[in-house]
Specification:
Helix content: 25-40%
Radius of gyration: 25 Å
Distance between the termini: 38 Å
Largest sheet: 9 strands, antiparallel
Length: 563
């Protein structure tokens, strides 16, 4: 991938907004010290919420032997505590200090893992609970840690002595006060929501006053209303964020029900809407679409979450607020991004994938976006955000949304499509959609229009990509602009160029598809970021042309009938 992320100067008002947010946060937090968040400690935990994430007894055995396999790395501790070791601040660091790996210890040998869990929690408290400072106290890591400690308190506290129990409860209380104080002014909305969930969960697990329960409930209500669209999507427009939030909201819902406590007003309707969105993003293969930072998510985990869905609502053909469309016919599913880029801090991991699409048939994912790396985000994350990493049209290897050049603001989007048009093209013969965006209008004076049609039997997918001026005319230019229509192919699919120029797609189960276009397609090397094992070599189909010679490119993907 030779393209680079275009960086542009951000509007001055964004600097003013960011400056005010930082000053406000500093004033809200004030002096950061455990003494500032001190107070009475609860004397007991009333219950432990369930953890819906899958556990692995093998990982428990590895940890018991001093090996910590987290975030695609393995840390050899040789009997020492990992919290006493100097570690880089990367994904492994976040996974380790978030304590979600405690779920694996619950699946291991009871005596062995109980001893290990207590020692590791004690080691963390000794080193990091005396001062609230550094990345271990980032809002998302602290929220995950509190939820994990509550959910897995049975293994942490099993046969614990009085001193450890009291110390642990004091740290639970410290986390609650810290998160309650820090969440309102935090710039990252996803982290803020996770903190609200953690505090609401703690209010139920600890002996709490009615005022504390009401305060946590109201704060969660407010955050859900701000962040979850009416169609069930999240303001980040990341399908995986919906999955991750549901994985925390469902245990919270069950905890409210088990205690007979009044639920936050928006909790149940929000969960129901999110179930609808999650099913919308699910491919026929059982995995979610790779849009706006989504990466590999286990089909089993996704199914485990969806087993709690009792809405009975039919999967919609579009999510209007989130900005996605879905075409489904036969065994085939098309997911298409036709929404506006997120703005502000929520766009730090957003992708420039307007009008990109994914296509699956049965158990096979054929056309995908490159996705986001599960780990190694610092190395590959910016490449994954490019328009070139998505199955859509790219002009001059330039992304349709631009990233700020300011270190102060961070890698937020400051320019993207301002107008997106959408039209239903469905008929008796096919499902269809027409969409257009103006992300290239300011730079190149062109609108990208895309039409996609899926036959009712799901065996033929056709498209038309058009470059035109706002008046609907061809832009005359002596040199023209170089453009590429990229179709990223899932690594499980093999490509073969045939003698007539068409390309054969061979799926792992023997299904075959033929791709052709009005301009001869070519096969290029590619990188798939969202594989279960990390980044992986793959291939892509590329249709390259110059706007002075072509402005309408038709293409088709048809199933090859078995003989």
């Amino acid at each position: 991938m030779v393209a680079s992320t275009p960086k542009v100067r951000a509007p001055f008002k964004l600097y003013l907004t960011e400056t005010w947010k930082r000053l406000h946060r500093r004033m809200m937090l004030g002096w950061m010290s455990p003494l500032r968040f001190s107070g009475a400690s609860p004397d007991r935990l009333m219950l432990a919420p369930v953890d819906l994430r899958t556990s692995d007894a093998f990982i428990a055995k590895e940890m018991a032997s001093g090996r910590f396999p987290l975030a695609d790395k393995v840390l050899e501790t040789e009997g020492a505590s990992p919290f006493e070791m100097a570690l880089p601040q990367d994904e492994f660091f976040g996974e380790l200090h978030g304590f979600r790996w405690l779920r694996h210890l619950r699946a291991g040998d009871e005596d062995e893992t109980r001893y290990l869990a207590q020692n590791l929690v004690a080691s963390w408290m000794t080193r990091h609970a005396k001062r609230i400072k550094g990345p271990v106290w980032e809002l998302d890591i602290a929220s995950k840690r509190l939820i994990s400690w509550l959910s897995h308190s049975p293994v942490i506290l099993a046969d614990a002595d009085h001193d450890f129990y009291k110390r642990f409860m004091g740290n639970i209380a410290l986390h609650v006060r810290y998160l309650r104080r820090s969440a309102p002014s935090h710039r990252n909305p996803t982290w803020r929501l996770q903190a609200r969930i953690a505090v609401a969960m703690a209010s139920l697990c600890l002996p709490s006053s009615n005022a504390a329960l009401k305060s946590a409930s109201n704060a969660l209500d407010e955050e859900l209303e701000k962040q979850i669209f009416a169609d069930g999507g999240h303001i980040s427009r990341n399908p995986q964020t919906v999955l991750n939030i549901l994985a925390d909201l469902l245990p919270l819902r069950q905890t409210y029900i088990n205690l007979g406590s009044a639920l936050p007003l928006s909790l149940l309707p929000t969960i129901d809407r999110m179930f609808v969105a999650l099913r919308f993003f699910r491919h026929s293969s059982g995995e979610i679409g790779l849009f706006n930072g989504a990466t590999h998510a286990s089909a089993n985990f996704l199914m485990q979450i969806l087993q709690n869905d009792e809405t009975g609502v039919q999967t919609p053909v579009n999510l209007p607020q989130s900005g996605f469309s879905r075409l489904e016919a036969g065994k085939s599913i098309v997911l298409m991004d036709n929404g506006y880029s997120p703005r502000g801090t929520v766009s730090r991991k957003a992708h420039a994938g307007c009008l990109s699409f994914e296509f699956s048939n049965g158990a096979n994912r054929l056309i995908v976006n490159s996705g986001s790396p599960r780990f190694q985000i610092s190395r590959f994350g910016e490449f994954a955000r490019l328009t070139a990493a998505h199955s859509t049209l790219v002009i001059e290897n330039t992304s349709s949304s631009r990233v700020s050049e300011s270190d102060f603001l961070g890698s937020i989007f400051v320019h993207g499509p301002q107008e997106i048009l959408l039209e239903d093209l469905s008929s008796e013969e096919h499902m269809g959609i027409r969409a257009a965006h103006d992300g290239y209008l300011k730079t190149y004076g062109l609108i990208h229009q895309r039409q996609i049609r899926l036959d009712r039997d799901g065996k033929s997918l056709s498209g038309l990509d058009i470059l035109e001026t706002p008046a609907g005319t061809v832009k005359k230019s002596s040199n023209g602009l170089d453009a590429d229509i990229r179709f990223h192919i899932h690594p499980s699919v093999q490509l073969e160029q045939l003698s007539d120029g068409s390309i054969l797609l061979n799926s792992h189960d023997g299904d075959r598809w033929i791709f052709n276009a009005t301009v001869k397609p070519k096969i290029e090397q590619d990188i798939f970021f969202a594989d279960v094992l990390g980044t992986r070599r793959s291939e892509q189909i590329c249709v390259s042309f110059n706007s002075s010679e072509h402005h309408r490119i038709a293409w088709i993907l048809k199933a090859v009938e078995a003989t």
